[in-house]
Amino acid sequence: MADATGTEAAARPGERVVTLLVNGRSYTVGLDARMTLLDALRDRLRLVGTKKGCDQGACGACTVHVDGKRVLACLSLAAQCEGRAVTTIEGIGGADGPHPVQSAFVDHDGFQCGFCTPGQIMSAVALLKEGRAGSDEEIREFMSGNLCRCGAYPHMVAAIREAAEGGGDVHA
Fold first, then answer.
1. How much is the pTM?
2. CA 18 to CA 151: how far, in whole Å?
């Protein structure tokens, strides 16, 4: 079994071997049963786009999609994701370029320091897929689980609105 680095995956004492499907690629790694999806993504698979903010499910910086639904990776156990499709910020763009939400965030300066941006974008992509971008108020409501210390919220709402008006192609 090969792990994320292409070497043999072996479970250390207290771990079990788990196969995760992340961004369409299969990874087989040894994990402690208590390891969160966030820690597995960042520390074992070296996919560091998903950010560790509060580590308590309060900020949304770690938002990813599991089977197409947004989840907080810091509150999800990696072992529970075995056999499920996980999509991170690294996996939402296509061969033809960035996801329309990513482009809209750039166009509308929907970020300041950028720390929360991956989680914001993952939530926005899910929001569009869920059909919950009918108004600015609705966008704000369904993005309320994602915090931004820089206060770039008006820019984010404008970006999400633009992506929604453009069809919000959600191929992720």
1. 0.88
2. 39
